[in-house]
Amino acid sequence: MLTIGCHLSISRGFRAIAETAASIGANTFQFFSRNPRGGAVRRMDPDDIAAFHAYAAEHGIGTVLAHAPYTLNPCSPKPKVREFARTCLSEDLLRLEATPHQLYNFHPGSHVGQGVEQGIQMIADALNEVLVPEQTTTVLLETMAGKGTEIGGTFEELRAIIDRVELSDHVGVCLDTCHVWDAGYDVADAFEGVLEHFDAVIGLERLHAVHLNDSLNPLGSHKDRHARLGEGAIGFDALVQVVRHPMLRDLPFILETPNGLPGYADEIRRVREAVSR
């Protein structure tokens, strides 16, 4: 069964966000682990978590994704920024054990002039500091568009991070269709080749989730601007082929398109209908 959802606000709690997901036809969702532009954390209510688990089981809501704040940058040249990143990672992973066996996604970071190699090492160092053998959460490095000094715009950069992580069995990848398109990977007309390259460099067994987004920009633009499905340069039919691919069909697909709830409900419905044909 297709697992598809969107990014939702967790402001009213886990049970409420699961109810919202179900109301728009979703059976997964993504949420920010804390304020996306800062560090504020919502208190976790044990009763709410228990209610979420019961509701999710009853309504077929499976693996969900937590998304780290955008301000998290473990390869910043500023020590305070790096320390904030490590604190966020450590605290978020500990909190996620209240909902075990889920996914935690983050943008690897921007080296801001230090160079790719040093940035890669610093990201790996942060993960080596926060990952623990007993954790159940899988940490996902997100594929990036490669704008500015972003790290993760190539599969090779993500592989280099993973190779330096001691507990790499806790690390995987989230593929963002908009980001990889903007990075120069043709997911519209050569998706099979993109997947083959991903498998050769990283390994498909490390791909745990897909951000399903169209792009406002042409291939290789390195800009990262999401579009609604079918309203961008990738196109609806090409994105449906991504969802239909036999190597990906068991993964959770998360919409991060510029939508409100009605728009997400419509996209989820359209994708389900297209995949079922």
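^ that was protein a. below is b, sequence first then the tokens
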Amino acid sequence: MGMGKVWLIGAGPGDIGLFTIKGQEVLQKAEVVVYDSLVGQGVLSKIPASAKRIFVGKRASHHTMPQEEINQILLEEAEKGYRVVRLKGGDPFLFGRGGEELELLSQRGIPYEVVPGVTSPIAVPAYNGIPVTHRDFCSSLHIITGHKKAGQEYDIDFEALVRTKGTLVFLMGVSALGDIMEGLLKGGMDPDMPAAVLSQGTLSGQKRVVATVSTLKEEADRQGIQTPAIILVGKVCTLADEFAWYEKLPLFGYKVLLTRPKNLISRTAALLREKGAEVLELPAIRTVPLEDQSRLYQAFEQIKTYSWLVFTSPTGVEIFFQEMEKREKDIRSLGGIKIASIGEGTRKKLKEHGIYTDLMPEVYDGDSLGEALGKEVNPGEKVLIPRAEKGNENLAALLRKAGAVVEDVPTYQTVYEKSSLIDEKAEFESGNIGCAVFTSASTVKGFAEGTKGLDYTKVRAACIGKQTKAAADAYGMQTWMAEKATIESLIELVEKMKHME
């Protein structure tokens, strides 16, 4: 095995949208990922399933692993020849001890790269509408670690900081908030200087407490501040009211769990994030093409004999065309066949392959598709339905009733999977999640498989259609259904659900 390599990647302050393109590209190819508790859930859910994951969680005063040991792990995994990613919250070189992690590698001649991350002392104020520098107020920015060793005085020159007249940002100092403010006051800072604590910045729990250097401690205690948080001192704090933008988005402060088939790139997630929601995308199900596609291949051989080709999911379309390609079947062989699709998503997927749907029901479910197509089909006509192994039985029955000769061909199966990195059950039990969004009955089942023992009456479920809602109702969830079975309509439903809280 050749020599491995280590990438030190900054995961940013939490919002998955602030993870860099280079960070994502490298992470996708990682074979080993070493991560800690400051990495946002959105980034964690992008760790490839095939990678070996090593958690080296560090939270103030609860060290689960000493730094020396982390350095050692990086070295050992790289020496085995792996592509190793060390994933760190924020930026690896800002109080992230990234330099210490590279020392050992550099002594041993292990190649490495550093991928900078969006850093919280600038990004978190920005998400609160606070520019850390503003021409009218200051001409410098100072970033200080507020972390101090137990029982020791700060070795911070507070007087010098006060003299800079700049914006001050203290990281990891919330537990020492009182000491820091006291240090500034003793150093000669105006007691009325604006100061703020900004907690859980860029995420749905984002909150700010704005006061002055002399009152911030009691104000923060009164309002209760959750870590991670940063402390900001300077006149720029007063701009929050004028420039705040994130909290004005319609879904700000709302955390949504999106269960989805892993292989469908999620438009739903993008639209929810655009509206300001924090989206936890967890794969509840994975679709896998069947090993044995002989029945589909037989259908390809007599494709000219079918009058209708029926698709019941975007995945069904995807796999059908992949298999055609494997058999070197030309798309022109579908020339005389009419095409039906169950709904909007499936129709769009067909369009990507240059095919326009001839029939789509008003309501996007199997029964409605069966009824609509039943009216179009002539007795004796052959209908091909390539679809999931466990599909809606009723669809084929309705078509046979109309006299069609139906060939129901399973081409893929649904596998349930559970996130190994994020405890979904705990997220619901702690009330962090506003709602779960389900786009099919099988995603509801997948979610239930991954959260055994959860009290489902605590789950607020936004469902795309009737069958999905019925599946969620069966578990006793609080359910709502989108007006139309489209992603857009589902997003509108989530907005309504947020306002009901």
